Amino acid sequence: MKIEVLGASGCSTCSKLKENIEGIVSEMGKSSEVEIVKIEDPVEIAKRGIMKTPVVVADGEVKFKGRVPSDDEIKEMLE
Questions:
Q1: Active site residue 11
Q2: pLDDT tens-digit profile of 23-55?
């Protein structure tokens, strides 16, 4: 599974979200199965039609947009 966190480079919420997802992936023992990437390029984010960050994309599908998902929501996405 490939997870992308889209957000501006100076967005502390977006960076914290990526760290949180990494921690949950590790806790669930899925580190070898999941690739996590942070996309900060505003042109790339705009090309995807994103106007409000943070956004979490899993395998090309937008899962969460404009908000920080709960730990339970992240775990459910990873199952």
A1: yes
A2: 999 999 999 999 999 999 999 999 999 989 999
